[in-house]
Amino acid sequence: MVDLQRPALDRVFGALADPTRRALIERLAAEDGLSVSELAKPFAMSLPAVMKHLDVLEGAGLIARHKSGRTVSCRLVAEPMEDAMGWLARYARFWSESLDRLAAELEAKA
């Protein structure tokens, strides 16, 4: 039976499917604790649009926000990616083994 009930994994992959959200994650990985306005600076979009992306990342558990006065800062929470990495690792083994068999077959014919 196939386990289709992995909503946390679905949210992580869904959040990471968008290039803007991946860029936000990369910025937080490089410099954690940036304010929302600092995060939004390099993007050619409105602050509300960036906030929507941050909502998706927070919903997937990939960021946490902290409000201090009027400033909201974000930090990366990488733990939810661990489950995604485990899921991907199974397929990395599959492709590695498949490519090893292909290489061996090509060497045998050469």
From TrEMBL:
What Gene Ontology molecular-function terms does this entry list?
DNA-binding transcription factor activity
> Entry's InterPro entries?
ArsR-like_HTH, HTH_ArsR_DNA-bd_dom, WH-like_DNA-bd_sf, WH_DNA-bd_sf
UniProt-listed PROSITE patterns: HTH_ARSR_2 (PS50987)
**Cited Pfam families:** HTH_20
Q: Which residues form the HTH arsR-type domain?
A: 1-96
Q: Which CDD domains match?
A: HTH_ARSR (cd00090)
Instruction: Supply the PANTHER family for this chain.
Output: SLL0088 PROTEIN (PTHR38600:SF2), TRANSCRIPTIONAL REGULATORY PROTEIN (PTHR38600)
Q: What is this protein called?
A: Helix-turn-helix transcriptional regulator
Species of origin reads Neoroseomonas eburnea
In the record, what lineage is assigned to the organism producing the protein?
Bacteria, Pseudomonadati, Pseudomonadota, Alphaproteobacteria, Acetobacterales
